[in-house]
Structures are given as structure tokens and as C-alpha cells.
């Protein structure tokens, strides 16, 4: 199968990184290599690009795509949150720029056998890393009703989280739930008929929630971002993060605001006691959004937001 993924906010994020031809860069979410190719194109032989992905298939595709570029390339099959140990192993002192294009690729969603899609039938899986121990089948069949309800509410902002969790735990008493189609049907039937249609497919939010749980997408994200700035970026280095839903964007915004604040004291205190100093400058105060052209040509860009900071 072709690796189809149209990179989102590509020009905007690459411009924002201010790439120097001999700099050291990190792409934490390699995917189809769209952003990495644009970085590699701007690097000379002394430039270096370190690329992470949890998905080995993505790494194999991107390796081929990046072949024509002669900068120094390192592919890492690991979570970008483990960047510190990779810096240590690879003797990297610091990065001049880091890009994170969070979430899943269109290739992962469109490949039915990966089990991410409520639109196609496939085994319930949803793990970005095909060797991961946790997958969607385990979450759906083994988590307690209250754990499912919490996940659907917290990671999917699903109004009918309780009803859907109850429907799943009732059905799995008689039969293991093993396919995306079965799960999508159970979710749809658990939602009151009047609320089934409107904001996209009725199973969209629960599928998002399960995917976030399976891949631990929000766990340690804030700490990871803080550490990337404090321990990963060189002074003057930039961090660009693209998010696709409000939960993710909220975490990125909070981490960026914390790093950019001169004082993080409780607002009620009359004087500053924290002596915190801003560690970064926000390159744009508001998130950068896709252009009307991009919105027209790539439906996946609709919810995208790009935030960029520079270490000072
Ligand atoms: C939106 S796609 C990236 C697309 C890429 N920027 C491009 O233009 O082709 C996200 C990719 O990041 C990977 N990914 C998501 N979270 C990750 C994490 N914490 N660590 C490593 N890879 C991750 C996914 O497996 C997926 O391949």
C-alpha cells in the first residue's frame, strides 16, 4: 500500500523552524517524512536530522523518501518522549529545532488492518507501535465499565460516555468485541437516536479516546515538552508543535505559557515569590492556523493548530 499522508501546516512549520544548514534538528513524529524531507532539503552535509516514530512501517517508508538527502540522518523507533536517552546515546549536545506533528497519520487511519478507523472494518488494534503490548481490543474487552466511562469522557469529551461504557460491558459478557465495525455499531446504538448525527460519525469521539489511551498520547506530554525546551533545545532553538484536538492543544498551550512566564505565583499573592524567569519567547502569541487553501485541499487540516516558541 502507498504511504498516503498530506503534511499539515508544512510551509508554516518549516519557516517557523528557521533552519540553519549546519544545524541539528529533531522530528519527533516522522510519519510519512513530509516535514523531515523539507528539513533535510535545507540541511547541508554537516547538518543533522534525528527522526522518531513509534511505527516501524512509517520509518521504513520515510527512510526511502529521505534517501536523496545527504545530511546526517538518524532514525529512531521510539517514543519522542525518550529523546534524552537518544541524545545521550548519539552524543547530541542540543537541537536547533524540534518539530512535533502530533497524533496519527492518514496512512495509519486509512489502513483498515491497523484498526484505527470507524469507517472501515478491521481488527481492533489502534497501536501506533505494532509491537506494543496494549491495544484497543484489550481496552474494550478488559477495562472496567468505570475506566471506560472515564476514558470516553476525558479523552473523547463524549457526552454519552456512561451509556456507551455500559453497552460495551453488557455485550462483551456474551461475546468478545474484536472488530472496529462491531465497536462502531455498539457505540452508535448506545447513543440516543436524536444525538447520533451532527458533529461527524457518532463513534468518532470514542475512537479518538481509545486511541489516546492505547498510545498514552497525553501522558507525560506536558513534562516532555518542558524537558525538550530545558534539556533538548539550544539557546535560540525553536520548538514547533502541531495539534489536532483541543485536549492536546490545551496541554501544549499550558506548557508554552508556563515557559514564557516571568512569574508563576498564585495571582492572589501581592508580590512575586517564585522568581521564575521566562525561558522562551512565543514566536506567535496566537496559534497559527491552516490557510483557506489548505483547508479546502486537506480536510484533515481542519482542526490543526501550530504553536512555536524560541528558547532564550
Ligand atoms: C501526524 S503523523 C506525522 C506526519 C509527518 N509529519 C509527515 O508530514 O509525514 C504522526 C506520526 O507520529 C507518530 N507518533 C505519534 N506520537 C508519537 C510519539 N509519542 N513518539 C513517536 N512517534 C509518535 C505516529 O506513529 C505517526 O506516524
SSE blueprint and pairings:
Blueprint: H1 10-17, E1 24-27, H2 34-41, E2 48-53, H3 56-66, E3 72-77, H4 83-89, E4 95-101, H5 106-110, H6 136-142, H7 145-156, H8 161-171, H9 180-190, H10 204-215, H11 221-232, E5 233-243, H12 246-260, E6 280-282, H13 292-297, E7 305-311
Parallel strand pairs: 1-2, 1-4, 2-3, 4-5
Antiparallel strand pairs: 5-7, 6-7
Helix pairs in contact: 7-8, 7-10, 8-9, 11-12
Bound molecules: S-adenosylmethionine (SAM).
Fold and architecture overview:
This protein has 312 residues and is α/β, with parallel strands linked by helices. It folds into two domains: 10-103 and 218-311, Vaccinia Virus protein VP39 (Rossmann fold), CATH 3.40.50; 114-215, DNA polymerase, domain 1 (Orthogonal Bundle). The protein has helices at residues 10-17, 34-41, 56-66, 83-89, 106-110, 136-142, 145-156, 161-171, 180-190, 204-215, 221-232, 246-260, 292-297; strands spanning 24-27, 48-53, 72-77, 95-101, 233-243, 280-282, 305-311. The chain has a seven-stranded mixed beta sheet with strand order 3-2-1-4-5-7-6, sandwiched between helices. Helix 2 (34-41) links the parallel strand 1 (24-27) and strand 2. Helix 7 crosses helix 10 (204-215). The longest helix has 15 residues, at 246-260. The chain is globular, with a radius of gyration of 21 Å.
Amino acid at each position: 500500500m502507498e504511504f498516503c499522508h498530506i503534511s499539515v501546516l508544512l510551509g508554516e512549520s518549516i519557516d517557523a523552524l528557521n533552519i540553519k544548514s549546519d544545524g541539528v534538528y529533531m522530528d519527533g513524529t516522522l510519519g510519512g517524512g513530509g516535514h523531515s524531507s523539507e528539513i533535510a532539503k535545507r540541511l547541508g552535509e554537516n547538518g543533522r536530522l534525528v527522526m522518531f516514530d513509534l511505527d516501524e512501517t512509517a520509518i521504513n517508508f520515510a527512510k526511502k523518501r529521505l534517501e536523496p538527502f545527504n545530511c546526517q540522518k538518524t532514525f529512531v523507533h521510539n517514543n519522542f518522549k525518550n529523546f534524552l536517552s537518544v541524545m545521550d546515546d548519539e552524543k547530541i549536545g542540543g537541537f536547533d529545532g524540534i518539530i512535533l506533528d502530533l497524533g496519527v497519520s492518514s496512512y495509519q487511519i486509512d489502513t483498515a488492518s491497523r484498526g484505527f478507523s470507524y469507517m472501515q472494518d478491521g481488527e481492533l488494534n489502534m497501536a501506533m507501535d505494532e509491537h506494543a503490548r496494549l491495544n484497543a481490543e484489550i481496552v474494550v474487552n478488559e477495562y472496567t465499565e468505570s475506566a471506560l466511562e472515564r476514558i470516553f469522557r476525558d479523552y473523547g469529551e463524549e457526552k454519552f460516555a456512561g451509556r456507551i461504557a455500559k453497552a460495551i460491558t453488557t455485550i462483551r459478557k456474551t461475546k468478545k468485541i474484536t472488530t472496529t465495525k462491531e465497536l462502531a455499531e455498539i457505540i452508535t446504538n448506545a447513543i440516543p437516536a436524536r444525538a447520533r448525527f451532527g458533529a461527524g460519525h457518532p463513534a468518532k469521539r470514542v475512537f479518538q479516546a481509545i486511541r489516546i489511551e492505547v498510545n498514552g498520547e497525553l501522558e507525560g506530554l506536558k513534562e516532555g515538552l518542558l524537558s525538550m525546551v530545558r534539556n533538548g533545545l539550544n539557546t535560540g532553538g525553536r520548538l514547533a508543535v502541531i495539534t489536532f484536538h483541543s485536549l492536546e492543544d490545551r496541554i501544549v498551550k499550558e506548557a508554552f505559557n508556563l515557559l514564557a512566564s516571568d512569574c508563576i505565583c498564585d495571582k492572589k499573592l501581592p508580590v512575586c515569590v517564585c522568581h521564575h524567569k521566562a525561558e522562551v519567547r512565543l514566536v506567535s502569541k496566537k496559534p497559527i492556523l491552516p490557510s483557506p487553501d489548505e483547508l479546502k485541499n486537506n480536510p484533515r487540516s481542519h482542526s490543526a493548530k501550530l504553536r512555536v516558541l524560541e528558547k532564550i
